[in-house]
Amino acid sequence: MPPFVGTLLFFLLLAVLLAFALHRTVIGRGMAVPLRQMLRKPTTNQYPEQPRPVAPRFHGRHQLNRYEDGLEKCIGCELCAWACPADAIYVQGANNTLEARYSPGERYASDYQINYSRCILCGLCIEACPTRALTMTHDYEFSADSRRALTYTKDMLLAPAAPGATDTPQRDKDVRERGTNYYGGLAVSPPSLHGDDVLPATARTSRRASQVLPVPTVSEADSADAPGHHETEERR
Ligand code: SF4
Ligand code: SF4
């Protein structure tokens, strides 16, 4: 037998033992990961000039949404604050008035803050929100060098009113005249950081649409607000 055959067999046996060790032992499988990476072609991300797209359900910065006519979806119920495991949300609710209506319901959030030095972007708050007022965008570029700058206030979180819509507060009379069924419309996803505009999150109508009370006409509502209306009720 030529001498080089013995050497060849030796290296063959060594390769088989190495392959066995890499596949069958824990330390071998661990070592195989950096070995594989060493053989791959390196990829360089040109961040921040060319940010990589994120997953469709990525949890980034929050956004307080509006209805198409500009009214805010937040009703100041504080469910998001109670659901937050990091105690990162502060909500102060207040009543809508005839001259200053912010949301379709009785209440709205007069103050809304999220402290991003506490927030872990878990998304439990958006699950708790009953009106889809609170959603999370794809924006992850909001680092800051002070704790104060990481507390986002309502004006920083509130989405701008859609083109043609009126900003809040609106007059209660104008809202009633529109007669919109606010709880039967389409949910809307927040805009993406990387180019997409507002996308419809779902095309199905709300299951609660049939449970919403009919909106009173302006004349009915005005007569109910008039002082004489209550006096008549009391006399009965
Ligand atoms: S994402 Fe999680 S931690 Fe952040 S505010 Fe919402 S519930 Fe709290
Ligand atoms: S964001 Fe949603 S859960 Fe939080 S206070 Fe507003 S309506 Fe309630």
Q: SS-based structural class? A: alpha+beta
Strand content: 5-15%
What's the total number of strands?
5
How does the major sheet shape up? Answer: 3 strands, antiparallel
- The average pLDDT is 81
Model description:
By secondary structure, this protein is of the alpha+beta class. The protein has a domain at 62-205: 2-Layer Sandwich (Alpha-Beta Plaits), CATH 3.30.70. It is built from 8 helices and 5 strands; from the N terminus they run H-H-E-H-E-E-H-E-E-H-H-H-H. It has helices at residues 3-24, 26-39, 79-83, 124-128, 154-157, 172-178, 218-225, 227-235; strands at 62-64, 89-95, 107-115, 134-136, 151-152. It has a 3-stranded antiparallel sheet with strand order 2-3-5. It starts with a helix and ends with a helix. The structure holds iron/sulfur cluster (2 copies). One iron/sulfur cluster binds at residues 74-80, 91, 109, 128-129, 131, 133-134.
